[in-house]
Amino acid sequence: MPKASPQPPRDSFTHDDISLLARVQQGMASSGFQSVWLSDEEARVQHFHNALDAALAGD
Length: 59
What we know:
2 helices, flat
């Protein structure tokens, strides 16, 4: 099994992400925002949530 690549301490990137969040949300609410590009990992997570929502709804 391959070793997981080392990740930086959580605080080093979490603070940066949180500081940008308000501007990102404002941009997503603007009239110019049409869609979001997801990484492969994010797309898998979104697919999981869509499948879970459908299963819980009885679809």
